[in-house]
Each structure stands twice: as structure tokens, then as C-alpha cells.
Amino acid sequence: MFPEDRVLVGVINRKRDLAYAQDAHWYRIPQARLKQGIHAEYLAFFLSGVFKERNGGIHYYARRTGVELVRRRDLLPKQADHPRADDVYYKVQLGALLEKSPPILNPAHRPISFIYTTWDRFVHARQINDLYSPADYFVDRIYHALRNRGIQSDRTWDAQYPNIAPEIRVLCQHGAVVASTESGADRLYLDSGQQEDQLLALILARIAAAGGPVFVNVPLEGWH
User: How much is the pLDDT for 224?
Assistant: First the structure.
């Protein structure tokens, strides 16, 4: 374990998926949710409301031991007639599931999808906010604001690619709209000194000028 090791936090919404992680040592992620691949040495798991007293916290983590691409029907053969049976998933292979003690809680009830962080942040974190760098935190807020408007985007985190600034990329009809915490001629600068609603207005205007977003069939809250 090194301080700069990357940790990918995912959400577990169903008890069966926790059982797969604990007993079969794998976790599934739709390829469409992380198009650039799995860039992490560890995975950690945020448990949702079905887990009652453990709801709203990161309680487990594991080392990533491998990853392969498989179709949903091969992961869950008993559900071969599922509407997304032919969708491609990452089957992330895991070492032993370990308990995070104390767990990382979410008292501010921040929306959670995926979070990239570093091992040193993960080890010392007590709340979800502790996992973010300032730039990641700002990008994440913009990402969820767009998501609340029905606009899907891809994110880049500090911990994911240390040499690339955190950014948001929205695929549009006439090309991608990119907003970044680093200024550049081909991107909209995410200035943390600006009001969030002003930045959103600028991003939405860029998206409209690019013909509007291209929508993909990916569930917003978890997957089945």
C-alpha cells in the first residue's frame, strides 16, 4: 500500500452484490459508466439504503486483483432475459473484502456515484468530503448539477490521472463539450471563484451550441 495508490469508490445497492463481493470476490460496473477503464489499485464500497444501519457509508474495501469485460448474461446467467442482458460490464476481481474502521460516513447526504481518491485520503477519511481534492470536489458538484438536469457526462479526477486536470466531458451532437479546472483554448475553464449557477449557464450554453447532448441508455442511480 502506497499513499499514491488509487481507490475507486463504487455504490452497492443490493445485498446480492455485496454477497458477490464478499463470497465470489467480484464487483460489476457497466462499461458505459467508466468508458476509460478501471484505473485503481483498490475498490471501496458505499452501501445504500437497503443496508439499514450501515446505510450511507463506506464500510468495505478490497484490493483489485484483475478485471475483464463480460456481458451481463454471463455474469448473471439466471437473468439471461433481462433487458440489458447484452450490455458489457467490467467484472472487477477482488481480494478479500476488508472492513473500513471507522467507516467513511456521509452526514451531508452528498449524492454518490463513483469517486476516485488516493490511499492516503481514504485511510484518514471520516466523511465523504475528505476523499476529494478541492478541484475534484468542485468538478463533482458541477457533475451532479448537470446530472440533476438529465445530462450525462464523464469525469476525470486528480487521483485517476495525476497529470490531467479534473474535468467534465459531455458528448454532444456536434462534438464534445469539455469543462476543466485548467484553462485551455478547447475547453471551458471551471473557475472555483465563479458562482456555480453562472458556470452551469455557460456549460449549458456550450452544450446547446454543440447541438445538445447525446443521450445513452445508462441508469442514473445504480444498475440492475
Answer: 58
